[in-house]
Amino acid sequence: MNIKILAEQLNLSISTVSRALRDSYEISEPTKARVRAMAKQLNYRINPYASSLRRHRSKTIAVLIPEITNNFFSQVINGIEYIAQEKNYHILIYITHEDVRKEIEFAHHLHNGRVDGVLMSVSAETNNYDHLNELMESGVPIVFFDRICESIETSSIITDDFESGFAATEHLFQCGCRRIGFFGLFEHLSISRKRYEGYLAALKKYGINKDDDLIVRSGNDIAANEAAITKVLTSANKPDGAFASIEKMAIASYNVCKRLDIDIPSQLKLISFSNLEISTLLNPSLTTITQPAYEIGKQAAMQLFRYLEKKLYMNRHEKIVLKSSLIPRQSTKKTHSA
Description:
Elements: H1 3-10, H2 14-21, H3 29-41, H4 48-53, E1 60-65, H5 71-86, E2 90-95, H6 100-109, E3 117-120, H7 130-137, E4 142-145, E5 156-159, H8 161-174, E6 180-184, H9 190-205, E7 215-217, H10 222-233, E8 241-244, H11 247-260, E9 269-273, E10 287-290, H12 293-308, E11 319-322, E12 325-327
Parallel strand pairs: 1-2, 1-3, 3-4, 4-5, 5-11, 6-7, 6-8, 8-9, 9-10
Antiparallel strand pairs: 10-12
Helix pairs in contact: 1-2, 2-7, 5-12, 8-9, 10-11
């Protein structure tokens, strides 16, 4: 018997059952009573060792991120560190390298009381969240940022991905593009789905039919990403504009265009989500949707400490949405042919 089966029998989320068994102030008394009764009926027992571990503070929080080379995550960590230092806490950084197996391994490792809480952005491969529910069951609060898990009841810090995806696509249209490609992450990821939905909404607004041949989904293999972009940019109906929903697809696009002697922006206009400090130094400079990464880190850390300091009450699992900025540069500049 485990908490997952118990939750299924009750038709409740794992995190709700876990909090009810721990007599959390966030759960109503009738729900607590129902959970305890079912737990007794099914002979479910809370692990007392895990519970005792959670009564102690390690003064450390973990940060799980999919990659460190992306400047966005570096800035987020700076924001987290600022708040952690104010609270006299240390941070441990775990990098999954977009590998869900590593994410699961790290989550299991953090069951042992090593940290008091977790801040995380899920890997591109993550589409099952049992390991994260189990971590929260053990008493470790999780706050998500950027790439979130919408099925877990906890706080999350995100940006206006739908609106930004719409704005990026609209910007390309206003710069003269009529065949606009979308280069993004796996569709199950929250950020990719919202950005893609914004892209589709903008196409619809301007009467442009979606063309699946202009859609590229990225993975962890750089060569495979560039091969997929090459196929699109050498097709008979190649795009005249592209929206890269993640930074690495923009860099891959620059590499492909250089190799194929495709001129940016006269032959292909390009915009990307990116916090690259070198965006202005690229040739041509890259038009970006820039997220407030430092502020995301600060807000995520502050939200986690509200959990740790018991300052969040029932129905206070907040989704905080911060606004990104569109910064036009040379990669989408209007040309005489546009």
